[in-house]
């Protein structure tokens, strides 16, 4: 596709359930990022994938959060045993590679509400 | 203290006004500075990108970086109602793998 594609665009889930959020980056982009944006807040870095290298998971807030990237393209962010404080917009982004200065393109986000 | 500070606003201006948006930061290693615009329920889109200190102009937008003061600005000339959005500053350094550190965003409202 032309841009970063995310699904679902909206998700309401019950506390304690697991959720999976999907990201399809721009074709040819080797770098992929997940950020979280809480209401009225800036973006918080979660995880970064670059090519076949081990991902940088330094931003994941707890061990309930995990992400994988299959075949160097599509990525899935999984949140286990969701809590109300997990309610946020989860934004995926991609860039040509991990070099500073390459433009990062964001998707529209997955809006997660935990009730 | 956050690494990047940004006044959340809201900032309300009349159409045609010059808008000044600002961020301060604490990490002197930051070298790449960006401004993103985010409309309601949309993803951020890149507006301006600047490397190191200096000015960059693109149409009605001017980005300024003062590394000595750790202060960056975005100016919008002849503001339009369509400029109403949240503006996020972001920055990174050479060793961050292009991972961005964001300010909290300033909500701008341009009234016709």
Report what the structure shows.
Chain A has 115 residues and is mainly β. Chain A is 0% helix and 46% strand. Chain A is globular and about 40 Å long. Chain B has 112 residues and is mainly β. Chain B has a single domain (4-111), classed as Immunoglobulin-like, CATH 2.60.40. Chain B has strands at 4-5, 11-14, 19-25, 32-38, 45-51, 54-58, 61-66, 71-76, 85-92, 101-102, 106-111. In chain B, strands 2, 4, 5, 9, 10 and 11 form a 6-stranded mixed sheet that branches. In chain B, strands 1-3-8-7-6 form a 5-stranded antiparallel sheet, with no helix packed on it. In chain B, a hairpin with a 2-residue loop joins strand 6 and strand 7 (61-66). Chain A binds chain B through residues 4, 31, 33, 35, 40-45, 48, 50, 56, 91, 93, 95, 97-109, 111, and chain B through 4, 6, 8, 31-32, 36, 41-46, 49, 51, 88, 90, 92-94, 96-105.
> How many H/I helices of chain A?
0
Mean pLDDT of chain B: 92
Distance N terminus to C terminus of chain B? 37 Å
What is the radius of gyration of chain A computed over CA atoms, rounded to a whole number of angstroms?
Answer: 13 Å
Q: Main beta sheet of chain B: strand number and arrangement? A: 6 strands, mixed
Inertia-based shape of chain A? globular
CATH C-level of chain A: Mainly Beta
Question: What would you call the shape of chain B?
Answer: globular
Short description:
The complex is a heterodimer of chains A (115) and B (112). Chain A is 0% helix and 46% strand.
Keywords, please?
heterodimer, A: 115 residues, Immunoglobulin-like, six-stranded mixed beta sheet, 0% helix, 46% strand, B: 112 residues, mainly beta, five-stranded antiparallel beta sheet, 54% strand
